[in-house]
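Researcher: Please predict.
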Amino acid sequence: MSIYAIKVINIKGITTSFELASDIKMSIFMKAYCRLFKLEKSNDVIFTLDGSKINESDTPKPLGMDKNVENLIDVFYRK
């Protein structure tokens, strides 16, 4: 099982790092991020990788994440 390093940058420039196993759905990471920043609804948050929206059912490998580098994810908040 491969481990992927994820670096998340929000609109305020705050960065947070996560590690995710290759078979774990992105919903686990998304929920953890929302809990960390006390966001009530993950529907109010959009995560993107290389400009493409990440879906909760996605996993790192099909998204094209590289296991040898830190993958940069941007997070945006809906109002």
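Model: The chain is about 15% helix and 35% strand.
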